[in-house]
Amino acid sequence: xxxxxxxxxxxxxxxxxxxxxxxxxxxxxxxxxxxxxxxxxxxxxxxxxxxxxxxxxxxxxxxxxxxxxxxxxxxxxxxxxxxx
Length: 84
What we know:
mainly alpha
C-alpha cells in the first residue's frame, strides 16, 4: 500500500474524530492517546466506532476495538477491515 493511501486514510479518520470530539483536526495526531489526550470515555468509543463504520462502510470487530489506545490504532484497524 502506498504512503498516499495511508496518509489519506489517517486524514479521513482524524476528520471523523474531530467532528465527533469537536476539536480542531490539526490538534489530533496519529500518536494522540484516546483517553489521556482526547478525553474519550467508553461511551465515546462506542460513538466513534459507529461514526467510523458509517464513514468507511465497514464493521469494526468489537474485540479489536478494545485494543485501541491511539488514533494510529484506529487507523490500523480501519485499514485492516477495509483492505484486509
